[in-house]
Write a structure and sequence with these properties.
By secondary structure, this protein is an alpha+beta fold. The chain folds into 2 domains: 1-36; 39-133, K homology (KH) domain (GMP Synthetase, Chain A, domain 3, 2-Layer Sandwich). It has 3 helices and 6 strands. Helix 1 packs across helix 2 (99-112).
């Protein structure tokens, strides 16, 4: 994995992944232009995306067809810590599967989500609220 950051102007920074992908981060309008998320917001977005990706991948391996998946994350940032100290997930999984299989899917997803593992090692408290429904 590689990353590169280049100043565009002001606080707008282009981030490159070493391949063909680019994301622009910025600061809110009070300081920047709000053109993109802050780097910390991108971190929270990455955790939501990682959970979703690992969940879809794990469901496929479990032969559990998903009908829908929504992952919402609210991060708590404290002035004292200067960063995120807690994340609260609201996850909605739609699948025609027994509740215990969906719970197992969630457990395996949490266990194998690299961004979540990284944040846990950084002592971020992560709370998961799992809601399930059939089609």
């Amino acid at each position: 994995m590689h990353a590169r950051a280049e100043l565009i102007k002001g606080f707008q920074i282009a981030l490159y992944d070493g391949a063909a992908h680019r994301v622009v981060v910025d600061l809110p309008p009070e300081l920047g232009t709000g053109l993109g998320p802050t780097s910390l917001q991108l971190c929270v977005m990455s955790h939501a995306g990682c959970y979703a990706t690992i969940c879809v991948y794990t469901a496929k391996r479990m032969r559990l067809p998903l009908k829908g998946l929504t992952v919402k994350v609210e991060a708590v940032e404290t002035d004292e810590a200067g960063t995120i100290t807690e994340e609260n997930f609201d996850i909605h999984i739609k699948a025609n599967a027994p509740e215990d299989r969906i719970q197992r899917l969630h457990e395996l997803t949490v266990k194998n989500c690299p961004v979540g593992i990284l944040l846990e090692k950084a002592s971020v408290k992560i709370n998961y609220n799992l809601k399930t429904s059939k089609e």
